[in-house]
């Protein structure tokens, strides 16, 4: 089984709990990931809204230090930034982050940061934010619209010239949480050739006792909207509350077989690996 996950917060747990990426008791470690036929894992440098300016910039490098000094073995890592407040109001830092290997970046977390507004904000993309979007595209860093409010999302639609993605967002129709995507938003991402990672967080699935069926409900909705080539995985492992039946990466082969049984092998392979791999030209 091949596995491609667009989002986890394991780097933060490793730093904050003084652990390591190779082996731990978190949702993900490299030892378990290496057991898959092929595994590509996106590791997010998550910048909480409590970090501002230079503090946010320094937080990025604290997380990056772990990433830089890790031997990933046969696991393919992707480095992402969740909340570009860490550019510290200096657009030139985007080039620096690109040189360090950043491939994906979200503009915000839940608040606003002088670039755009997250779901707990009503502000849209600022003039500086428009320049940030253009700079990300010029550096070939993929824009992640997860966490944006609707105003900022649609401002991005008017500004972006390249496909963007939502690394860890679900269907608002299935679960009306403000972090989830409306049908229209999902269709826009599909139409421009982007991908959307299904998030495992209980609150975004809208059930207190979630299992594979709840994940499947979101996948089924996105399939009805024509998303066969756009649905991916964005687990949010190590960043949220996830029910025990789907928590931890060792449960992913069981989920894969569940999708094979209900959707067929071709679609299961697309969701688990091919859609993301094609987007990032890694096939």
Task: Give a verbal description of the structure.
By secondary structure, the chain is of the alpha/beta class. It has one domain (2-279): Metal-dependent hydrolases (TIM Barrel). It has 11 helices and 7 strands. It has a 5-stranded parallel sheet. It has a two-stranded parallel sheet with strand order 6-7. Strand 2, helix 3 (53-68) and strand 3 (75-82) form a beta-alpha-beta unit. Helix 1 crosses helix 3 and helix 10 packs across helix 11. The radius of gyration is 17 Å and the shape is globular. The model has no long low-confidence stretch (mean pLDDT 97).
Keywords for this structure?
5-stranded parallel β-sheet; 39% helix; globular; 7 strands; 11 helices; alpha/beta; 12% strand; two-stranded parallel sheet; 283 residues; TIM Barrel
Please estimate the helix content: 25-40%
Can you name the CATH architecture? Alpha-Beta Barrel
Ends distance: 14 Å
CATH class: Alpha Beta
Kindly estimate the percentage of residues that lie in beta strands according to DSSP. Answer: 5-15%
Shape: globular
Which structural category do the helix and sheet elements fall into?
Answer: alpha/beta
Strand order of the largest sheet: 1-2-3-4-5
Q: Order of SSEs, N→C?
A: EHHEHEHEHEHHEHHEHH
Mean pLDDT: 97
Report the strand count. Answer: 7
